[in-house]
Specification:
By secondary structure, the protein is α/β, with parallel strands linked by helices. 35% of the residues lie in helices and 21% in strands. The longest helix has 17 residues, at 229-245. The protein is globular and about 45 Å long.
Length: 266
């Protein structure tokens, strides 16, 4: 009988299901496989979306989500937790309960509030609950600039202005760029000790579905492998850029990152 592999870290992923396969838990699974990790996906919400937009979503019952997560935690040596779409304040509270019971696990929080096409993936009060109660439990949060503005309640705020508002709530904050029209994309890591680290990459043409999920999952995988935070952020950003460079357009809307190489199973 095959023996369990003690060298393949397990990452518990709590997020929504995207039927187009571009974002959500499928993105988590593929990105973590590419890092050499095992993804354990627990569904928090079901969505009606594709590469064009999201039209509806349903948040699952909290007991179902806790049961999924605890089934994994009781069976596997989880090395990290990655959060994506939660969708409601009740689900935020559910994750808080879970993390308070497992405080040693590093938590990567991707504060998914809107889909790539612009549709809402959370009720209006979710951002406030994330900022006030969940971000303090996270090792790092990875909002893009529009999400950071929602969390910071600064509709026109710069990355630095949003970080100044959010850092009292979290240990580390990675705000990703790419939503303007500059030639290069600037991503900045803000650390609780006051240090900042800038990561710049060339802008790629097109619009992408699932890039934020890809980044946060890759980062959680690098951390689960034991990589130091700044190095893990750099590795995850580099990987994500490559998935966007090689992205495909399976539908009529945004491009989907190619998170696994074509010869992955050969």
């Amino acid at each position: 009988m095959p023996q369990p592999n003690p060298f393949k870290p397990v990452v518990l992923c709590l997020s929504g299901h995207d039927p187009s396969g571009g974002a959500g838990l499928q993105a988590d699974i593929e990105a973590l496989m590419a890092q050499g990790c095992h993804a354990a996906p627990a569904v928090t919400a079901l969505t009606v979306q594709n590469t064009v937009d999201v039209t509806d979503f349903r948040v699952l019952d909290r007991d179902w989500v806790l049961a999924q997560a605890n089934a994994v935690l009781g069976d596997m040596p989880v090395s990290a937790v990655k959060l994506g779409m939660l969708g409601s304040v009740e689900m935020v509270d559910t994750v808080i309960e879970l993390m308070q019971a497992n405080p040693a696990l590093p938590l990567v929080c991707d504060p998914v509030l809107r889909a790539g096409g612009g549709g809402s993936l959370g009720k209006e009060d979710v951002g406030f609950a994330l900022r006030e109660r969940l971000l303090p439990l996270a090792l790092i949060a990875t909002p893009n600039l529009p999400e950071a503005r929602i969390l910071a309640e600064l509709p026109e705020g710069s990355a630095d202005e949003c970080a100044a508002k959010l850092l009292p709530y979290c240990q580390n904050l990675l705000i990703t760029g790419g939503h303007g029209d500059e030639a290069d994309i600037h991503n900045r890591l803000y650390c609780k000790d006051g240090s900042q680290h800038d990561f710049t990459c060339a802008r790629l043409p097109g619009s992408y579905h699932g890039s934020g999920c890809t980044l946060a999952s890759a980062l959680s995988g690098r951390l689960a492998l034991g990589e130091e935070l700044v190095s893990a952020v750099r590795s995850a950003l580099d990987y994500t850029w490559r998935t966007l460079r090689d992205a495909e357009q399976p539908g009529h809307g945004q491009y989907v990152p190619r998170r696994l190489p074509l010869d992955f199973c050969s």
